[in-house]
């Protein structure tokens, strides 16, 4: 067993694309636990989607052996964190498991909104912070600028900053030495009652749920009867161990350790991130602080394109859910789209991930309804109804008060984009904005706005407006009264309920027009004229028509033309299978997705 | 083909190919020489092909024998010789009566030559003449097109094939379209041309029995081409020719050299071959059937493909009937003129 003073627990925190995964790879590589030849880029991001998007969705941990220049042998526990605002609670639990962080900043982009948000979170946890300026090899790198920002915007000592190029492997040694010398060893009493923080859980088809945990006090070993203090469940420990490249069983995990516990827990949904593990006998009196129930904030329905695939979709979601405790779903049905599922997500990225993984890993074509937040309606009986599905919009005459969730959003961007950003904020119904100038030329804009405004293409717009230099972070604050209406979309007079949206009256017409136009672009012309309408109640507020296709017969079809023609039609037929029939109109999957996007202009 | 030597080996190869299929097909009641420019083949060569074929295959007594003729190659002697060889139907590639458009289309003949050719065909004794025309050429409008049709029917043809322009890169027009200096006639206008053609020829006493084909009477329909649309078997000989035996379809090498080489080595000169499954045959039967005025015989279709067309697609068919694309008549599902325009979509029911 390793002495506690030779253990270091740390995370790398960074704004998206500032090189977190690449740095993690370098640290792993340097530790020598993996033969370089077999090194697959970005070991910590095991999912394809993560590698493609260059972001870490789910956190993982790894233990790295390291011998310092003074010859001491250390065990460095790197706890990876998800890099997106949707997963800020998970990030906070990872941080709570650490004593220090590497705050990674891109040398060209400098400090961004998530850098600040992550720093605050690290400060909240009293972590030692080592600023690391990455990508110094880039021609656009500006280390001086970043040092100034570290001083002025982050309030950290610029002399404490290290520089590196994770890509080129420059400065890695210094970082490892700094981890050893500047991050304190964990504290904790192995003799106390067990208190261990769950910061992640993963599903293993053979072993059930593998709990990722940090032991604060006490010890845990095979055979122990453990209890999850918030969930109240009791389990018997089957195996404990460390994360090397693969799971490495150990006899015991003790105070200060980061490792895993396997205890016959069937699904990850049975485990709550942030829960405290203690022993059933001699339990700890109080759980570790900071536990929160993770609640979905964005809701949408998922339908299979082919209704025959409903069972397959059901199985796919069940399997997917095994590894994503934040994802919730229940049965739902649509008049236009048939049987499906109503799902809750932590945010839009989370929604994208679920959609992509279900389609990719289970080979299903699915349609998503327009995402919604959870609204609150007070009805004449005085009852408050939470509605996250437009299908459950209350009887209009019974509504006495409509409210929607608000967030406080923090954005950082160069000041030249201020005008365009203010316009966006007004359009998105932002209020009580506050402007700060953390350093010359940079603006930090804090604003309260409806969560629904962010759900609908806010992030893409911000990125476009600021040419990629803007960044964004948010947290939910409260519910506020709002003038809401139910917008329905009709195709040839038939309501497509998956396209129904609860929207603020002020943007209803614009949204209706936008939806009609998007559908017009995406729905291929068919043999009939197609009318697309937006309606509030019985009132049509927007309309457009798709003129029919009139001639598709080819001039010649003789002996030599038949095969070619058949192949063409087979392709069309296949394409049609990826469309949803609403009445006699075939609507492609892309139409449902396009409605969620705004124009580039 | 450029020289007599080429023509020699071509003729020899063609006969060798025919020998390979001897006995594989039942009686032939139609014979069609076309594709490319068969009229450049000397009558002697034609004779050297036809005589052996008549020995190798059995032909019905009342066979329809068509040959495609370029107006520029139609001397009276040549036409008379073709008649003597047993051809009883001429397909003449007139395309347009406008020399400018003909040049644009890359055709080597003039309107005057086409006119002469028609007169000579009659004089040579052909009483079944088909004329090919092209519409929706950039620059053409409904009035000029109707004039083209008017002039064409003044020659009293038994049959007309009116094709929407297919843009060929090799032609001057193709180059202009490619470079963007001329744009294609748009889809709505092409539909108008199609309808105008159907209406004009209906008044003139022609039946549109297929999307692009019109006949004076049922007996004057092109029996040979009907085989394609009825999904019947056919044997094609020569480079780039396609054949279908009811289950398999194969295509010969397009290159004359490859074609000849294969046959010299006693091999079938086949470049591509496919065996069609039930679903593939069914889709073909649907899109071919929807091109013709006779449509799809429901009983026959159900029996052949083990389906229940009305049972399975009744709603869709009902909707298409209501919208005027299809009619259900005498146990057949028949496209209307509006339906013929959308034959491909109808096939996807």
What does this molecule look like?
- Chain A has 601 residues and is of the alpha+beta class.
- In chain A, the strands form 7 sheets. Chain A has an 8-stranded antiparallel sheet. In chain A, strands 2-3-1-4-5-6 form a 6-stranded mixed sheet, with helices on both faces.
- In chain A, helix 7 crosses helix 8 (348-362).
- The longest helix of chain A is centred in the C-terminal third of the chain and has 18 residues, at 505-522.
- The radius of gyration of chain A is 27 Å and the shape is globular.
- Chain B is α/β, with parallel strands linked by helices and 349 residues long.
- Helix content of chain B is 45%, strand content 19%.
- Chain B contains 15 helices and 13 strands.
- A 7-stranded mixed sheet of chain B has the order 1-2-3-4-5-7-6, with helices on one face. A 3-stranded antiparallel sheet of chain B has the order 8-9-10, with no helix packed on it.
- In chain B, helix 1 packs across helix 10 (256-264) and helix 6 packs parallel to helix 8 (187-203).
- Chain B is globular.
- At the A-B interface, helix 13 of A face helix 8, helix 9, strand 8, helix 11 and helix 13 of B.
